[in-house]
Amino acid sequence: MFVCLAPTGALTCGTKFLSGGSCVAASDCPTKTYAANHLCTPCTNSDAASCKGSIALTCATLFLSHGACVAVCPVNQYGLNHVCSPCVDVNALTCSPTAALTCGGGLLLYQNQCIASCPSQTFTPDNVICAACSPNALTCGVAGGSQYYLQNGSTNTCVTQCPAYFFNDASTSRCTQCADGAATCLGAGSGQAVICGLNGSGTQTYLDSSQNCVVAAGCAAAGAFFPSAASGQAVCTPCAPGVLHCNSNAAGGATVCGTSPSSGAQLFLDPTNNCVVAGNCPAAFFPNTADNKCDACAPGVAICDSLTNAYLCNAATPPLYLDNVFECASCSLIDPQAKTCNLALGVLTCSDVYSLRNHFDPLADLHQQLCAQLLTCANGGPFTSPEALSCGAPYYIYQISGLLQGCTQTCPSGTMPNLGPSKPFTLNDEAVPRTNLPSSSQTVTGVNSS
Q1: Could you report the per-residue pLDDT of 79-105, keeping only the tens digit for each?
Q2: Secondary structure of the chain as H, E, C letters
Q3: What is the pTM (predicted TM-score) of this model?
Q4: Could you count the other beta carbons within 10 Å of the beta carbon of residue 22?
Q5: Low-confidence ranges of the chain (pLDDT < 70)
């Protein structure tokens, strides 16, 4: 039922909705109106293209957001086709359909995303965005929670870790060069090295105990150290205990000895380049306090306490003996046929076909044993074998002159027969002066002179 007051249009409608003097279906209410109480009623929001009461369903020129038409979509939404839609990035303040445009919550915009800190090679100039560093940076700052340092080179770049031979200088935000030779350091100047490499001359350096990089010779200059890279790093390594200088801390690596860590006694460098106490110098060596080495005794000496003071001679060929100035001399100086000898007795043993006999040297007032050839006189007399050591019966041995002995049946004045013809007669030179020996012109009784 509807009321019609004038022929030009309806005033009310029964089941339909009054719109401009006509009764229309709800769906036919014009734009910006909605059907309610049999009327096409204007939308509350002036930009609503369609609505339901106060709630806009579509917007004409603005953007629909939660039942209202707004000129600007709220935070974390973007407007498209007159509708506000949520941003893809939940941290975005504003966005496009595919990317964040601004960020909230203290986050920074980088490559259309909201992130907590700027990545490497970027920085934030305004705490809003992350911008790429210039290829020729002049200064570096903090990005992504990390401090960056200016690395000078063909192009200045910002790095989180400075290269070898430089350190991160927090005071300047620059890469500052380490001391010469230091590949890694904690700071500039002395005592800051951590790892050593090549110095400016291209020479390998070693980390000393003062945290400085020194050339190989500098290790020894700093104390009992030697240069080594055995650990994988070039360091000045301590010598073995008691060693002042060395080329390794293994056996045979010492070059100069110090004192024993336990007793304080001076140590001596032995021929195998080990440091030993004085008593452990090897045979034929003595501890020399002039150079703290086990130095060799003189040739032929088995035991000595200096180069000129021997105690025992080596068994050698030719044989040696300890002379009266404590040096080892050849036994051949006493007798060319001596096999062994000593200073007190002279010859001790003789070579083959020679035997011992006593001898007195009146000029030196010296009794000593010498060697004479083992010959036996024939029965013909004293001059057939002038070097006799034994005579056949009825002859007796006697001294002719010097070292010569002969055979006689009648002993010269001052001598007496020795009844052991199988043994050499031991002449008492003190009792028989050589002036009493027969001359070549004398005839000895019972001796055939032919």
Answers
A1: 999 999 999 999 999 999 999 999 998
A2: CCEEEECCEEEECCCCEEECCEEECHHHCCCCEEEECCEEEECCCCCEEEEECCEEEEECCCEEECCEEECCCCCCEEEECCEEEECCCCCEEEECCCCEEEECCCCEEECCEEECCCCCCEECCCCCECEECCCCCCCCCEECCEECEEECCCCCEEECCCCCCEEEECCCCEEEECCCCEEEECCCCCCCEEEECECCCCCECEECCCCCEECHHHHHHCCCEEEECCCCCCEEEECCCCEEEECCCCCCCEEEECECCCCCCECEECCCCCEECHHHCCCCEEEECCCCEEEECCCCEEEEEECCEEEEECCCCCCEEECCCCCEEEHHHCCCCEEEEECCCEEEEECCCEEEEEEEECCCCEEEEEEEECCEECCCCCCCCCECCEECCCCEEEEEECCEEEEECCCCCCCCCCCCCCCCCCCCCCCCCHHHCCCCCCCCCCCCCC
A3: 0.48
A4: 14
A5: 1-8, 134-137, 143-144, 153-155, 315-326, 343-345, 353, 355, 357, 359-367, 373-409, 412-450
As a residue count, the chain comes to 450
Residue 200 tokens read as 């400016």
